Amino acid sequence: MKVFVVAGEPSGDKLGAALMAGLKALVPDVTFDGVGGPLMQGQGVDSMFAMEELSLMGIAEILPKYRHLKRRIRETADAVIAAKPDVLITIDSPDFCLRVALLVKAGSNVRTVHYVAPTVWAWRAGRAEKMARHIDHVLALFPFEPPFMQAAGMDCDFVGHPVAAEPPVRPDELRAFDEKYGLGRGTECMVILPGSRRSEVERMGPIFGQTFAQADLGDMFVVFPTLPHLRSVVEQQFAPLMSSGKVCVMDGSDVTPEQAARDRLVAMARASVALAASGTVSLELAAAGTPMVIAYDMNWLSRQIISRMLTTDTVTLVNLVSETRVVPEFIGAQCQPHLIAPALEIVAKARTDPSQPPSPQDAALTLTMERLGRGGDAPGLRAARAVLARL
Q1: DSSP string spanning 296-334?
Q2: Backbone phi, then psi, for 352, in 5-degree steps?
Q3: Residues 144-170: tens digit of each pLDDT
């Protein structure tokens, strides 16, 4: 069996690697071509080019790279058509992946599967119908998504979210973390996660840095779980905090990608509170059981356009899956340090001050993991079964 698989960002790389592992377990002689990051490369993809070329978000970020991205889209589609795989699996990154699928369908009869349903429940509902013209099958991360895809004419299976398959962090892992960074048992810790793209870190860094400076959080040790190519950007954007000495940047460059992902989860579990950019990271924090505050802003043009298209009152995935609104979020014009800091204080004190009531997020975090498949088969294996069942 021959599979062509394409991912354009770290979260897609993780999904792709798990799906590839599932396919290898079910079809031992499967081979892969495509585009992916270190995790997918570890499963057997010799990436056509660096996945980081595709890690762009927002209209103003994409426009300067448009001609280059257009060339990569054509190159990737041509490679798929030449390879004649049994199936093309594109993963998230719709601006790139769905354009590749469109060209592939125009030039071949290759079956197309897209992993991660578009957020038609949040904005631009018409994307599902447009997508159905060149996508045969969708693998959905959330249980409420299949009806939207099926109504547009595509096959769709809920396969669970990979974050729900993460084994709980063990006490010995937490002890090892404390020993590595010299943390005493009573030392409070927080994680700051400004994003997985360079543009996000540069945009959110000043906002998060000012938020931390304004919030009364006591004497906290701060951890920045990030990626090797973003380390210097994080250190530059958070330079005042770096000089305090009570901070570490974890980029995973000294361990395997799998261990780096685990270390990231351990850091989250060790933290009493998190300040994070909007996205999949909220589910990682839910898996770690860490209460959070979510904040995100885009460039002015992107904000004006996207804010007018939103059809939901929250973009935080924990809020959506748990059907609550207990995770504070500050999006767009509300993404300002003087608004974020008081919410961060409240969430942190619910964990660190014994006199405070429990965080209202705790139950929502547990419910989110249950609804995403915790305790069942690994999502990567479920996704692989779904792909094979519909071939």
Answers
A1: E---HHHHHHHHTTB-SS---HHHHHHT---S-EEEGGG
A2: -100, -15
A3: 899 999 999 999 999 999 889 889 999
The CA distance from 298 to 303, in Å, is: 5
Summarize the chain as % helix, strand, coil (round to 5): 50, 15, 35
Beta carbons within 8 Å of 386's beta carbon, 6+ residues apart: 137, 139, 157, 159
Residue with tokens 């340090």: 337
pTM here? 0.77
Long-range contacts formed by 244-249: CB under 8 A, 24+ apart: 246/219, 246/220, 246/221, 246/222, 247/221, 247/222, 247/223, 248/181, 248/221, 248/222, 248/223, 248/224, 249/224
Q: Per-residue pLDDT averaged across 373-381, rounded?
A: 92
Cα angle value 49/88/379 (rounded, 5°): 95
* pLDDT tens per residue across span 232-286: 999 999 998 898 879 999 999 999 888 998 999 999 999 999 999 998 899 999 9
CA angle 133, 139, 142 (to 5 degrees): 120
By three-state DSSP, how is residue 24 classified?
helix
Residue 298's pLDDT band (cuts 50, 70, 90): confident
For 139, the 3-state DSSP assignment is: strand
How far the first Cα of the chain sits from its last, in Å, is: 11
> Average pLDDT of 355-370?
90
How many angstroms separate the CA atoms of 274 and 267, rounded? 10
CA dihedral 312, 317, 322, 324 (to 10 degrees): -50
Q: Is 78 exposed, middle or buried (0-12, 13-18, 19+ CB in 10 A)?
A: middle
Residues 33 and 2: beta-carbon distance below 8 Å: yes
